[in-house]
UniProtKB/TrEMBL annotation:
GO molecular function, one term: 1-acylglycerol-3-phosphate O-acyltransferase activity
GO process terms (BP): phosphatidic acid biosynthetic process
Family label: Belongs to the 1-acyl-sn-glycerol-3-phosphate acyltransferase family.
EC number in record: 2.3.1.51
SUPFAM superfamilies: Glycerol-3-phosphate (1)-acyltransferase
Protein name: 1-acyl-sn-glycerol-3-phosphate acyltransferase
Matching InterPro entries: AGP_acyltrans, Plipid/glycerol_acylTrfase
Domain Phospholipid/glycerol acyltransferase residues, every copy: 33-144
Amino acid sequence: MYRFGYYIVSFILLLLGGKMKKENKEKIPAAPFVVVCTHRSWLDIIFLALALWPYEIHYMAKQELFSKKWVKWLLTKLHAFPVNRENPGPSSLKIPMKILKEGEIVGIFPSGTRSSEHVSLKRGAVTIALKANVPLVPAVYKGPKTFKEVLKRKPKLVRFGSPILLHDSKKTTKEDIEKTLVLLQETFDQLEKK
């Protein structure tokens, strides 16, 4: 289903909106890893998935999106899995850890919500990457934020940064995680400016 969705969506977006530019794709390591991206529009999700192809992303998504049966079926087929953002329980770590152990890629938007403003990054992505001992791959999407803007054929770009390597240990503290979040935000800022 994911493969089918990729070919259909990429063809439609290419036809209606033109080509998308991908930068620094050579920096992407071998799976498994956690890809983290800025989140300003629902289009971030689609263009990040298209930019990472042939890798398939397992997106962490808010559980409210899974309330309708047909939406739940579709999201599950597209490798999304639910998480309770208000009260994250053990499954918010268990599911992505299992996916990473299987050699796959987990996609997380660490701002936790769509915003055009600077939003404090949440610790989930860093914690998961640390526990799974996999790199964090930062990415930014610059381009249309609405389908209307896609139709205007505005330039689209996904830019990847160098992987941030993390090593979990019993000595890892909340301060270490906070420092990594600061580094991640700085990386996002640099990738946005280029």
